[in-house]
């Protein structure tokens, strides 16, 4: 049986009530590097995004889910992007918003739930992620879930006046 519910977290669809939560994340300059964001987002634009969040993954080519605990507190976001049904692959991104919620297993459990959903429900063959070479927490998270480092993209992102390398990780469903 497919479930997006774990022991400590569950994954749910975006709701209109998530407006402030998403606005805070999208406008937090300290994490713009993760999403390649360069400008702030207005609440108006995020509200429009939420109004269209119901669009099917096969049409939108992406899926964003909220990581919630069983107190119904939004902890973070987990995304599928570049969804390619023909080649049966998608990219994965994850963010646990508050630093005090990190390294507690929430991201790991959310990623495990998403991997299971992708391989069993969406019938994907592979998942991939892009991680800055200095993001040790994300490297550990993804490698602990079986992702393999398959390459280094040199000088891939330009952040704060300097180029940074980025790893490409991949998980193939055997």
UniProtKB/TrEMBL annotation:
N-acetyltransferase domain span: 9-170
Pfam families: Acetyltransf_3
GO molecular function, one term: acyltransferase activity, transferring groups other than amino-acyl groups
Signal peptide (UniProt feature, chain positions): none
Protein keywords: Transferase
Identification of the protein by name: GNAT family N-acetyltransferase
Lineage summary: Bacteria, Pseudomonadati, Bacteroidota, Flavobacteriia, Flavobacteriales
């Amino acid at each position: 049986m497919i479930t997006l519910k774990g022991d400590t977290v569950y994954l749910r669809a975006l709701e209109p009530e998530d407006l402030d939560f998403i606005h805070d994340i999208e406008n937090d300059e300290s994490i713009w590097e993760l999403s390649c964001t360069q400008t702030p987002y207005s609440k108006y634009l995020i509200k429009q995004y939420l109004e269209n969040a119901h669009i099917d993954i096969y049409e939108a080519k992406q899926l964003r889910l909220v990581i919630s605990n069983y107190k119904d507190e939004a902890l973070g976001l987990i995304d599928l992007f570049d969804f390619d049904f023909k080649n049966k692959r998608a990219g994965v991104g994850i963010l646990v918003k508050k630093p005090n919620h990190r390294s507690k297993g929430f991201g790991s459990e959310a990623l495990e739930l998403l991997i299971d959903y992708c391989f069993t429900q969406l019938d994907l063959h592979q998942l991939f992620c892009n991680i800055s070479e200095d993001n040790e927490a994300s490297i550990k998270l993804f490698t602990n879930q079986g992702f393999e480092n398959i390459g280094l993209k040199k000088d891939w992102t330009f952040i704060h006046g300097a180029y940074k390398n980025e790893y490409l990780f991949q998980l193939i469903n055997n």
